[in-house]
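Handoff note, outgoing to incoming analyst
You'll be picking up this chain. Sequence as last confirmed:
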Amino acid sequence: MSTAKLIITRLLTLVVVAQLAYLLIINGALQLTVTQTLVNKIRPEKFQVSWERAWSFYPFRVHAQGIAANGQTRSQQWEVHAESGSGSIALLPLVLKHVYLSDIEVENVDYRQRPRLKAERDYSKQIAYFPPITGRDIVPVDTQPLKKKRPWKIHLSNMQASGDHRFWIFNLQGAGSGSAMGDMYIETRRGNFWLNVDNVDLNLGPAYFNSNAEIFSGGTATGALGFAPLLLRENQGRRMLPYGYIDAQLDLDVDSFDFMKVFTAGLGDLDISGAGEVTGRIAIRDSHVRAGTQLTATAANLEVAIRDLGVAGQGTVLIHTPPDADTPMGLDIRYDTLTASRTGASNPFLRGNMLQLNYSGSNSIIPDPDLSFKDLWTDEEARQRRAGSTFKLVIDDATLIDMSTFNYYLPAETAFSFAGGTTRLDADIVFSAQDMDGTIQLDSTDLTIEVDEQAFQGDLDADINIAGGVPSELKADFSDSTLRLFNLRVDGDQSKFDGNYWSAALKFTSAQGSFPRTIDLAATAELTVSDTRPLVAFIENRNDPPKWVSNLITVKDLTGEAEIQLSEGRLTIPMAFVDSEKAEVAVKGEFYRGDRNGVVYARFKRIDALLKRVDGKRNVDLIKSREKFDAYQLPD
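Most recent structure output, in case you need it:
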């Protein structure tokens, strides 16, 4: 035999002997109980591992069945079970405290995790629903200073999981079947961390909160998720959220739309709740919704709360971005049938067939964890994000069931109140951060307004023009709006009026109002009145003037102007008049706390008179009536 052949033969023999020795030693060691005992003595307070059966066919790759491991960090405790698994390890990097595990394959995984307890936090409502961890009690967080040591750096690459899986993290648990692939890097001692999970393809079973509150009943999820690189010591709990990402196709039956808070946290007093089907694509990265998102949530009972109003009914919520751009993000709420009510009220004040609320603007969705909710509206960066945002409200053919509902927005001191009537409502309004515009159309039937013991009833059409405003302060400009009142009836002890052919129009040349809780209004308007008979009936019921005075102020075909103010329940008319070629009627007055002060001037050709009511005293002046009217000043 030649020297070369001899060398090759000996090398092959050495390889075969080494392989056989490896198989005998490693597989023998894997079968011995003492091996698991020795491994678990390395850092028993940090981790424990066991397996039912294990083997290795070639160096540094191990297969196992019945795998179980548990451990704890300074702030968390965890446990994982797998029916079977395999993986490869690189030995030399261990010298430098690097762990390289690759080509990891596991089947039928059950993962559990719970927190170690922080002294400043109350866990009384959650702790009963945390998962049990084999051989470990729930203990406080480790607050001892870290010793100065190099961290272990763990690299997990080409991980694959398949089969039936379960998870129980804190008080959230669920199950699913399918597969996923991924890579992970983590450093001990709260160092760097990242996670990338690709090719997720799962059929999800029910998931529960606190063991019995179902979050979703099942569905499917495909796509990718993970965490971008972050430093764990600086990003614990919710501080990890801005680093999370997901790009997935979902089809879930959910029992709660609470996840919508992720998208509405920066939109003010807007809250969405309900249960139903969630379908479509969601893409989030770096705290922003990304291009191609089209996620729809459909509910038979969708509830939306805005300040003190609640809307409920059959509806959908669509979260979307353009196919090839990250902005603008849209959040569209659409109702097919709905009711609206004030918070705490037993009955709704509105019913309708269509309502849309559309948000378009910033795609930033996860606020800075250091900002409070109030800070979100004052923080400069948050204001800049909202600068280009808009809300659009569209209401088509809704019915205000009972106008008396709006007494809630009138102070108790207001001299008038709504006593009934139904109103058709249509609206199309656009709000931005610093402006608003749009239209509101009202068509009221049998609108009833009570002033003390008198009742006015009629039909009202309103074309409300919103020419501007400040949405954050609930202020609006209603200039160029028009009110038309007709078929007016006045009911009182002394006089009644039923005018099927009576009409009046009020066009606001300038009008500003605010509606934080009670209504404030300042307006000037042009008046057109068919005749003054309703005013005469009102005055007769309040002042019982002589008949000739009533006849004097009964005139028709009038036009004029009015100035109106409503603030803190005080209705003030600094000046209002209507006139014609032969007649004139003018009013100055205020109505507050059930009392009224003011004057009414009436002229027919050359005959005039002044009706006065001041501090409860009433009289009629016939001398220098006009001069006295012009000189009269309402009290401050």
